[in-house]
Design a protein that fits this description.
Layout: H1 3-7, H2 11-20, E1 21-31, E2 42-53, E3 58-61, E4 66-72, E5 75-77, E6 85-88, E7 94-104, E8 111-116, E9 123-128, E10 149-157, E11 161-164, E12 168-173, E13 177-182, E14 195-198, E15 201-209, E16 218-226, H3 236-254, E17 263-268, E18 275-276, E19 281-285, H4 296-312, E20 320-321, H5 328-345, H6 351-367, H7 382-386, H8 392-408, H9 410-424, E21 428-429, H10 431-442, H11 447-453, E22 461-465, E23 470-473, E24 479-489, E25 492-503, E26 507-509, E27 517-522, E28 529-530, H12 534-543, H13 550-565, H14 571-581, H15 588-604, H16 611-628, H17 631-644, H18 652-660, H19 670-682, H20 688-697, H21 701-712, H22 717-729, H23 735-745, H24 751-754, H25 758-771, H26 774-783, H27 792-800, H28 806-827
Parallel strand pairs: 1-10, 16-17, 17-19, 20-21, 22-28
Antiparallel strand pairs: 1-2, 2-7, 3-6, 4-5, 4-7, 8-9, 9-14, 10-13, 11-14, 12-13, 15-16, 18-19, 22-23, 23-26, 24-25, 24-27
Helix pairs in contact: 3-4, 3-5, 4-5, 5-8, 6-8, 6-13, 8-9, 9-10, 13-15, 14-15, 15-16, 15-17, 16-17, 17-19, 18-19, 19-20, 19-21, 20-21, 21-23, 22-23, 23-26, 25-26
Bound molecules: zinc ion (ZN).
């Protein structure tokens, strides 16, 4: 077994390990005092595990620079380490195993990430483990169902904030060094333990609630952190306000007191995901610290993420899935709760609007890929687990829970959740454990519901046959749904009727009054593609933006986009609707989605011969609206303009003028300036000197990343070749710098410049997969996939690489399917 294979733990072998091992405690001693010295690549880590065993040997997981010492029940043992697993022999019934090792500081966001801020030279550390990178920091049993009580002891430079899941128990101050010991945790899975250390900027607060039995109130200290150089942009008050609102809400809704002792939220650099729900210590992407102007939709998105992670304190952390097959048990619920709690407890009362437009689009997209899977998935190993943090597990799962709430009622749904927490606190579960509680609370047998929604793939497409007076669904499922009827009244489209019904079979009779627009799945209760009939489409073309209810507009935008992606609605007709109605779209989240979808449609779905004309029309719309609109809408249009300007230089001179300080209709913050410069670079209107000058205005981590992109975007064959080589071979690139390099390489209308690399792509990906970490390899495989006009090379690679790792094949199959859809939809456009 290679180290790469040894690292890919399987469901079968971890299940076997769990039957013979019962973990009690893990003491982890980390020495992070070397972190400020960039010449030091590693840190020492010592783990002491106590556990019972019913077998004479097992293995403990570790990835890092070296394993130096293994002590089993007081006896020194030879180090038997294959790069991923440490063989442990000589086990008794009760065991204490100590492992001393050296871990590596990470540049890929996996394990213990080290970041040095170019503004002030300060080093910042944070850990990120899910699904299986705790073993990059400590020797451990890397599987969710071996929970243990952890004690972290961290040596770090004096003056740093050092955080972990629990409150600090004691601090020893030395000269220039502090050793922080944290209180022992309650039982935790390894993937949700965490350590954060660095000179972070700190804001503190408190949340308190009367206790559930009327005794001592519960008091939880709150902390919010970001890098010191971002402190001036950090709106901690809003973050803490949402936090208190969320804790109040969940405390009531879940009927189980907040299970952990602290609630720290840290916004960290070069983060691979939106956020991670480590109990008591949630980590977030720094993109949520708004350096410049931000829209209400961005604030809503951040609040949603805060509440999503907070829901995990119960769903996921308190009760944890047994294995990654049931990842949905936490992610679907947290995704649902993010929107539900936003609407119920915060100022973002219309959170379900964004859910309908954005999250569901992600679900519909993922569910039409060849790699789609049931919400309850089959995850044989860790590589499969890593790729399953997808639109099915999150957004489809949440959509289906929304349908479940419509089916059993909100009260029964939350009652089921309360019973589930009471019964399984600090344990591990599977689907059946949840269904039992939901069935008990609702008095309904959910076996059929589960079979129809959790254990199948794909979705129904629902249409209304006006002649027959029937709802018609493909791929029939039981739906609880609403149908809205809208008619023109004084120049606006007004809902005149709303009918709720159950749909079971392929055709269901439904008498509706005569209406200009029939909106299937109004209220967004179910999960399905809802089509607009021709008369409804005509009404939408005329009056979409006159509909007062943003939620209804969200569903119409969604129906239009699904039909465009399927080639049923011609892309140019869709784009005409966007140009006509997006300028009047008052919901910033819907406007943002419409502008992003329009740009995508121009690039992917419009027929080749019509593309130049559509590029121009879209650029002019964004240009005009950047001048006409105000507030958040203007910011959305300006960002859309920056994206569109990378494909056409019609306004290059104007934009150069804006950057030089004249005539801009909108204040240009640092991020918008970089976006405009990237567009100018892609069309050949920005030089190396321009990029250097911009960096002197914004010499920050974000600025340096943006500069990489600007430089790599120059439309010059040598520049692009250099970016290509750097992306594949420069192993010192961080995750963010790799993305910037790839973004620059692909910027603008550049196919002619980069098509020559297609063959090399297919020749490289397999070695890359085995040599690089999965996070970096995934960015390369998806980011550099050729935007070719034929599927032949994809098919050839798949045929020749039948034996490639399943996770790599999944990525190539998905990218191939995106390309196949592009080609198919373009083909369907006619002339
Ligand atoms: Zn989550």
């Amino acid at each position: 077994m290679s180290a790469h294979e040894a690292a890919n733990l399987t469901r079968e072998e971890t299940a076997a390990r769990a039957t013979v091992i019962s973990l009690r405690t893990v003491r982890v001693e980390l020495d992070l005092t070397t972190a400020p010295d960039p010449a030091r690549t590693g840190f020492t880590t010592a783990s002491t595990l106590t556990f019972t065993a019913s077998a004479g040997e097992t293995w403990i997981d570790f990835l890092g620079e070296s394993v130096d010492r293994v002590v089993v029940n007081g006896a020194e043992r030879p180090v038997e380490w294959d790069g991923a697993r440490i063989r442990i022999t000589g086990l008794a019934d009760d065991n204490e195993v100590r492992i001393e090792a050296v871990g590596a500081y990470s540049r890929s966001g996996e394990g213990l990430h080290r970041f040095v801020d170019p503004v002030d030279g300060q080093a910042y550390l944070y850990t990120q483990y899910e699904p299986a990178d705790a073993r990059r920091v400590m020797a451990c049993f890397e599987q969710p169902d071996l929970k243990g009580r952890y004690t972290f002891v961290v040596a770090a430079p004096a003056g740093w904030h050092v955080l972990s899941n629990q409150a600090v128990a004691k601090i020893d101050q030395g000269i220039g060094v502090q050793t922080v010991e944290f209180a022992e945790t309650l039982p935790l899975s390894s993937y949700i333990t965490a350590v954060v250390a660095g000179p972070y900027h700190q804001v503190t607060g408190e949340w308190s609630r009367p206790s559930h039995d009327g005794a001592e109130p519960q008091r939880v200290p709150l902390g919010a952190y970001c890098r010191a150089s971002l402190a001036e942009h950090f709106d901690a008050d809003e973050i803490l306000e949402i936090t208190r609102q969320g804790l109040d809400f969940y405390d009531d809704a879940f009927g189980f007191p907040y299970p952990w002792s602290t609630y720290d939220q840290v916004f960290v650099p070069e983060y691979n995901l939106g956020a991670m729900e480590n109990p008591g210590l949630v980590t977030f992407t720094e993109a949520y610290v708004f350096r410049g102007a931000s829209t209400e939709a961005q604030h809503e998105g951040r609040a949603n993420t805060i509440l999503h992670e907070m829901a995990h304190m119960w769903f996921g952390d308190l009760v944890t899935m047994r294995w990654w097959d049931d990842l949905w048990l936490k992610e679907s619920f947290a995704d649902y709760m993010g929107a539900h709690a936003s609407a119920a407890a915060t100022r973002f009362a219309d959170a379900w609007v964004s859910f309908a437009a954005r999250r569901k689009a992600w679900a519909y997209q993922a569910d039409q890929l060849p790699s789609t899977h049931p919400i309850v998935a089959d995850i044989p190993d860790l590589e499969a687990a890593k790729l399953n943090f997808d639109g099915i597990t999150y957004a489809k799962g949440a959509s289906v829970l929304k349908q479940l709430v419509a089916y059993v009622g909100e009260d029964a749904f939350f009652e089921g959740a309360r019973r589930y927490f009471q019964r399984h606190a600090y344990g591990n579960t599977t689907l059946d454990d949840l269904l039992v509680e939901l069935s008990g609370a609702s008095g309904r047998d959910l076996t059929a519901w589960s079979a129809a929604w959790l254990e199948t793939t794909g979705m129904s497409t629902i249409t209304y046959d006006r002649t027959a007076g029937e709802l018609v669904q493909t791929d029939p499922r039981p739906h609880r749904l609403a149908v809205g009827c809208y008619s023109r009244v004084d120049g606006t489209l007004v809902r005149t009727d709303l009918v709720e019904t159950d749909l079971l079979d392929e055709r269901t009779a439904l008498e509706l009054p005569d209406a200009d627009l029939i909106l299937i799945n109004d209220l967004d209760l179910t999960y399905a593609k809802a089509r607009l009939d021709e008369r409804s489409l005509a009404a939408v073309e005329e009056g979409l933006s006159t509909i007062e209810d943003a939620h209804a507009r969200a569903l119409i935008w969604s129906a239009l986009w699904n039909a465009t992606r399927d080639g049923e609605l011609p892309a140019r007709r869709y784009l005409a609707i966007v140009r006509h109605h997006a300028p009047a779209e008052g919901h910033i989240g819907l406007l943002t989605a419409a502008t992003l979808n329009a740009a995508f449609a121009v690039g992917h779905y419009v027929a080749d011969d019509a593309r130049p004309e559509e590029r121009t029309a879209w650029l002019e719309t964004t240009w005009e609206q950047t001048h006409r609109s105000t507030g958040g809408a203007q910011l959305v249009w300006a960002r859309a303009l920056a994206a569109a300007a990378a494909y056409s230089d019609a306004h290059a001179a104007d934009l150069q003028g804006w950057l030089a300080g004249s005539d801009a209709p909108i204040g240009l913050d640092a991020d918008l300036r970089w976006s405009l410069l990237a567009a100018l670079s892609a069309t050949g209107h920005a030089t190396v000197l321009d990029a250097e000058k911009e960096l002197t205005r914004d010499d920050t981590a974000t600025g340096r990343t943006a500069q990489i992109r600007v430089l790599a975007a120059r439309p010059d064959a040598d520049v692009r070749a250099e970016a290509w080589a750097s992306a594949w071979t420069d192993t010192t690139l961080t995750n963010d710098h790799l993305d910037a390099t790839i973004g620059g390489f692909r910027a603008g209308e550049s196919r002619a410049l980069i098509a020559g690399f297609d063959d090399e792509y297919f020749a490289r990906i397999r070695d890359t997969w085995s040599e690089r970490s999965i996070e970096i390899a995934r960015r390369l495989v998806t980011g550099l996939f050729p935007d070719a006009d034929s599927l032949a090379p994809v098919d050839a690679w798949l045929a020749e690489n039948d034996d490639a790792p399943a996770a790599l094949r999944r990525l190539v199959i998905e990218q191939g399917d995106h390309l196949a859809r592009d080609l198919r939809v373009r083909e369907a456009q006619g002339s």
